[in-house]
């Protein structure tokens, strides 16, 4: 595996570009995960004895790549987790979807319920037991070849949220094997990327903003402006 690309690092934070198809943290597959790989990297680069602390603040689904922040101290982890809770951790994604959404921009609000047995998330009526509210804003940047490039701002971080909500409005993500299997070929890579990440520095409070452009490959390469 290629070294993980580091976007920013100081004594408190580590911001990286998560590679696709790697779990954010250890899961039932036992495959190499990003959290463990980064801990090992820090241990080697800084010649640290013993266990390395690295706090997982948020997650990206296994098939999704892009900007992701980790905390290098427990204080930073606590403050970044508070940013997640109070929604001051700004997360913007790019997605390529089938078709064109019914409006060029909008806010989607659904209630989602995860079946832990099947790892499938469904839209359910408000008030359903254990359902969580999911909110995002989207904007269609461009449409071509029966696909649309969409910018998505997440306001909540529910499992599979973008994938389920876009599918619900009739625009499943290109390559999504779980929520768009009727339109996607097996083995296709999902077209969802963590493009922009912003938050106040946990110690200095300085506003930080990071960008991670999607890879220059299908379907992203249909939009050359992404790779200028």
Describe the structure.
With 228 residues, the protein is α+β, with helices and mostly antiparallel strands. It has one domain (5-227): 2-Layer Sandwich (Pseudouridine synthase), CATH 3.30.2350.10. 14% of the residues lie in helices and 35% in strands. Strand 3 (55-56) and strand 4 form a beta hairpin. The longest helix has 12 residues, at 34-45. The chain is globular.
Task: Please state the structural category.
Answer: alpha+beta
The global form is globular
Strand portion, in percent?
Answer: 35-45%
Largest sheet: 11 strands, mixed
Name the CATH superfamily classification.
Pseudouridine synthase
In whole angstroms, the N-to-C terminal distance is 26 Å
Q: What count of domains describes the coordinates? A: 1
CATH class category label: Alpha Beta
Oligomer: single chain
- What is the number of E strands? 11
Which residue ranges are poorly predicted, with pLDDT under 50 across at least 5 consecutive positions? none
CATH architectural name: 2-Layer Sandwich
| SSE pattern, N- to C-terminal | EEHEEHEEEEEHEE
Tell me, rounded to a whole number, the average pLDDT.
93
Can you give keywords for this protein?
eleven-stranded mixed β-sheet, 228 residues, alpha+beta, 14% helix, Pseudouridine synthase
